[in-house]
């Protein structure tokens, strides 16, 4: 990795606002009445365009193998199999485009992406799990509209080496090692991004309990 600055960013502080460099002029920002964080409002047309672009390029590298290790075979068609029941509670984002768009309207949006099997195809040699140029461009594009982070089981240095987008935040070792965006040199702004991420992540964790 050539960018040493990108490796050495600090971790965490508490919420304030989404940095202006992640809000292009086509997107408006307002204070949300229920939160201290700014909210990015994006038109439905733009939201469809951005999400569609990312999901479209993600489909080929996404794992579509049925998890036979964890679930029995489907059984008679009139029965709800464990696999189908699991899918009902954990639907694939790739098959839920309309729901994503509908539920994203007027909300604060932050994007957390996995690396292996999501941005890169699963391959036998972990050193060769490269992401495509198209995928890199799609992720870079989406990060212009939403704060975007990659959370991986790999070391964050390794993930950054594969992705090489300073616009993103990276959480390696399953979230134990965090690197803020180095696209903006302002420390306070990069801290703001993670404040925003963690306020959303905490909400998500609370809701799933
Ligand atoms: O959290 P992730 O970003 O999904 O990382 C999970 C593990 O990914 C890597 O292993 C997986 O991908 C390899 C390359 O396609 C594949 O060879 C291996 O079978 C998969 O398990 C990585 O090597 C692990 O360190 C990560 O924990």
Tell me what you see in this structure.
- This protein has seven helices and six strands.
- By secondary structure, the chain is α/β, with parallel strands linked by helices.
- The strands form two sheets. It has a four-stranded mixed sheet with strand order 3-4-5-6, with helices on one face.
- Helix 6 links the parallel strand 4 (148-151) and strand 5 (169-172).
- It is globular.
- Residues 1-39, 65-69 and 205-209 have low confidence and may be disordered.
- Residues 114-117, 122-124, 126, 129, 152-154 line the site of the ligand O=P(O)(O)OC[C@H]1O[C@H](O[C@H]2O[C@H](CO)[C@@H](O)[C@H](O)[C@H]2O)[C@H](O)[C@@H](O)[C@@H]1O.
- One of its GO terms (molecular function) is trehalose-phosphatase activity.
- Residues 10-28 have a biased composition (Polar residues).
Bound molecules: ligand L263DTV3
Query: Any idea how many domains?
Result: 1
H/E series, N to C? HEEHHHEHEHEEH
Low-confidence regions = 1-39, 65-69, 205-209
How many helices? The count is 7
Distance between the termini: 39 Å
- Overall, the morphology is globular
Strand content: 5-15%
Q: Averaged pLDDT, please? A: 69
Q: Please summarize the sheet with the most strands.
A: 4 strands, mixed
Number of strands: 6
Cofactor: a divalent metal cation
Organism: Triticum turgidum subsp. durum (Durum wheat)
Biased composition (Polar residues): 10-28
Catalytic activity: alpha,alpha-trehalose 6-phosphate + H2O = alpha,alpha-trehalose + phosphate
């Amino acid at each position: 990795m050539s960018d040493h600055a990108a490796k050495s960013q600090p971790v965490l502080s508490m919420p304030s606002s989404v940095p202006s460099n992640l809000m292009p002029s086509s997107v408006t920002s307002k204070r949300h009445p229920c939160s201290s964080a700014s909210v990015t409002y994006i038109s439905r047309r733009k939201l469809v365009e951005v999400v569609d672009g990312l999901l479209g390029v993600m489909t080929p590298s996404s794992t579509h193998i049925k998890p036979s290790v964890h679930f029995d075979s489907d059984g008679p068609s009139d029965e709800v199999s464990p696999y189908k029941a699991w899918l009902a509670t954990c639907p694939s984002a790739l098959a839920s485009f309309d729901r994503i768009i509908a539920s994203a309207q007027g909300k604060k949006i932050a994007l957390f992406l996995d690396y292996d099997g999501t941005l890169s195809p699963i391959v036998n040699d972990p050193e060769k799990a490269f992401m495509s140029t198209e995928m890199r461009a799609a992720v870079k594009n989406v990060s212009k509209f939403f704060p975007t982070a990659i959370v991986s089981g790999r070391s964050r240095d390794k993930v950054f080496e594969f992705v090489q987008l300073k616009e993103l935040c990276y959480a390696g070792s399953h979230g134990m090692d965090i690197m803020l965006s180095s696209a903006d040199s302002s420390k306070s702004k990069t801290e703001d991004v993670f404040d925003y991420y963690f306020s959303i992540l905490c909400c998500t964790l609370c809701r799933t309990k």
